[in-house]
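can u pls check wat happens w/ zinc ion
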Amino acid sequence: MPKNPSVFSKSICYKIAFQSFVLCLILASFSCTSKTESHPKKVVLVILDGIPASILEKTPTPHLDAIASQGGYSRAWLGGEKDGYSETPTISAVGYNSMLTGTWVNKHNVKDNSIQFPNYHYWTIFRHFKENFPQKTTAIYSTWLDNRTKLLGDGLAETGNLKVDYHFDGLELDTVRFPHDTLSRYIHEIDKTVASKASEDINRFSPDLTWVYLQYTDDMGHRYGNSPEMEAAVQEADRQLGEIWNAIRNREENHNEEFLLIVTTDHGRAQGGFHHGGQSDEEREIWIASNSKFNKRFDQKPAIVDVFPTVADYQEIPIPRDHAMELDGVSLLGDLFATDLKGKVDEGKLIVNWKNHGNNPNGKVWITFGNQFRYGNKDEYQLLGEVNLSDNSAEFDVSKFEFRNAKVVLEMPKGFLNYWVEKE
Ligand SMILES: [Zn+2]
């Protein structure tokens, strides 16, 4: 009989524990390898400027069709809530920033193409990506310099000195290489150069998160309206998109990478295709195509603000709760629970409603008074109560609260919806 059985059994325990620890390490490193190294998940976002869905759909676009045949194509929308607090001009930079931040203009504050006072407290998906994965790479290929320097805010103190790892832009400022002509041929030449460089880099080293922006179609819309010239420009954009798509397929086939490619536009057009900026249905209507299959939100007219949470889901970018509570879009991937949150205060009662889509019905309604997030501070939320999402609406007594404005948030099993209300 051993003198000290407890020591003996302990040492066996340690040995077993140590062996299982080593085994865990091996398993962990194995699963790490298979997750992050054998199937890196890459994202490419492409904006083709100012192409109405009606023009796109009647113009032959074989490359876009090839992409959509793997995933899907849908008409989509932007512009926030028409006549509501989030109504958003259908202007280029405004649309890009709605995609990048997942919010409407009342939050991101880019009101036009002069991009005077962006509210950088609403982080772009690029910033979230880089904060979480500093070792991974981001890239932009753009016919407009401001997309990097002002919207992404590359190198600005206000964006925490975000660093965009690869960029190819600003060619529109090079009047020697691209002499400016009144017909915008130089923009066409720049688009071609930008698309080629993007596909070359994706082919060579495949940045993890890439944004490509091509402009020529918008110039042709402004000049010629809905016209053969516009359709020819759309076909050119499609050819350039085809180069990028080829690079992506090469990486998928030969480098074991997976890609989410989202192609979209930044506004529709009105008045015969010459103009945009207003709130007509045709200016608010856009489209989204992707190589990925999406959830049913995609078939029910998605919004440009859905791109951000979709990318976050795909690349598993953890979005801090206070940021996630501000997002105006929902993910096109995974379970869909609810959309279209609205609310109003009437005789001391807060009445909220939403559209239920899910099977798992529990949610929570939160409220905060004022809006500290926009100043970079924390909002203190109070729980109003739990709701059954399948009820599609709920009422809460808010008569005891003193406030003028409040933010209401519906917490779902995954993600949040938010709406701003005023006391009458
Ligand atoms: Zn535009």
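The domain at 338-422 is CATH 2.60.40.10 (Immunoglobulin-like).
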